[in-house]
Amino acid sequence: RRHKLYREELNLTSPAAPLPLRPDAGWLQFHLGISRDGLYPRSSPAVTRLLRDMQELPIISADYSQDEKALLGACDCSQIVKPSGVHLKLVLRFQDFGKAMFKPMRQKREEETPEDFFYFVDFQRHNAEIAAFHLDRILDFRRVPPTVGRLINVTKEILEVTKNEVLQSVFFMSPASNVCFFAKCPYMCKTEYAVCGNPHLLEGSLSAFLPSLNLAPRLSIPNPWIRSYSFDGKEEWEVNPLYCNTVREIYPYSNSNRLLNIVDMAIFDFLTGNMGRHHYEMFTKFGDDGFLLHLDNARGFGRHSHDEISILAPLSQCCTIKRTTLLRLQLLAEPEYRLSDVMRESLLQDPLAPVLTEPHLLALDRRLQLILEAVGKCIDTFGEATVVANDTAQPQSPAADRAKLDT
């Protein structure tokens, strides 16, 4: 149906066979490769093909994301703190039935987030989404969906292919004769917050969609180390150094790998500088010990000159870490496998390279040392046997703990 509409709009009236769904499509192979161990295997030709497809395939439709549609016209733009998770982003569909989340460039690479900005009003950065995918793969987490940069023609590849009249209505020509568009209401309410092409071309990140919730249900769970989304509020973990003792008593953090996965996520977020991890998602199919999805990373890589130690609270307060995670971090601290060098080489594969500036790359090495120092302090206090967990075992949660969840 979408292919037919696409051909009609281009006045391609010659008979054409219905476009078949190719079993070897990159996005489909990516979906089929999701397992208990991660979103994709360590060496995945499907991911390589999917990244190439998102760079090159024709875009046949553009629309707002579901969360923006849900909030359209319902948010109060006079409020300083906007609904969480909402950003100027679009769903782009490709000729092979695949789709990706497009986040446009809002901030230049060399710009740092002003130090007076609160994390919940920070810009979201397209290059942070791209860099987060590469870092996640280097750390061998494989919990960030494949993400790639692309130069989009906002006129031909968004305005002219969208059926959404609201989206069509927010396009305008700037005084500099650049084509611009903005979110109608949910996040950036006014034209001064628009993003603009040059005059039509605009950088952005494309993140592959996960399988639909009907096929692969997911849970969205509040992060125990969630931050206060107010100007002066504090959460308990910010004022109570023994907070982790309370968390350990609560199912599922009491008898599963969940707490270790939270620590993994905190390490990942500390390296990127992302302070906005208020929720995390999991596939229900893999149960309590399934991996956490590292989604929405656009608030990372904002300040290379500042290391936000509070992001490491799950590690420093709980003093536990997976052995495999620690070994990977120690390897990336070695001169011949330095994290900044591995990241620099990996990011050169992206069409928008250089994705990160040199100060951001060097900040990764500095933050990695801080993580290892935090682990070292824990080992000095509690001993390696207590701190470093053998994450190859998959413990089952007792029935009594499951009963707690039900109540």
Overall mean pLDDT: 85
Structural class: alpha+beta
From the spread of the alpha carbons, the general shape counts as: globular
Oligomer class: single chain
> Ranges with pLDDT <50 over ≥5 residues?
76-86, 394-407
Indicate the percent of residues in helices: 25-40%
| Strand arrangement, major sheet | 1-2-3-8-4
The proportion of residues in beta strands is 5-15%
Q: Rounded to an integer, what's the Rg over CA atoms?
A: 22 Å
Total strands: the figure is: 12
Along the chain, the helix and strand elements come as HHHEHEEHEHHEEEEEHHHEHEHHHHEH
Domain count, please report it.
2
Tally of helical segments: 16
* Terminal residue distance: 46 Å
- Major pleated sheet: 5 strands, antiparallel
Lay out the secondary structure.
Elements: H1 2-9, H2 26-32, H3 45-56, E1 59-64, H4 66-71, E2 90-94, E3 99-104, H5 126-138, E4 147-153, H6 155-159, H7 165-169, E5 171-173, E6 179-181, E7 195-196, E8 201-208, E9 218-222, H8 236-239, H9 243-248, H10 258-272, E10 279-283, H11 313-318, E11 321-322, H12 323-332, H13 339-347, H14 358-382, H15 384-387, E12 388-389, H16 399-406
Parallel strand pairs: 11-12
Antiparallel strand pairs: 1-2, 2-3, 3-8, 4-8, 5-6, 6-7, 9-10
Family: Belongs to the FAM20 family.
Binding site for ATP: 103, 207-210, 281, 296
Protein name: FA20A Pseudokinase
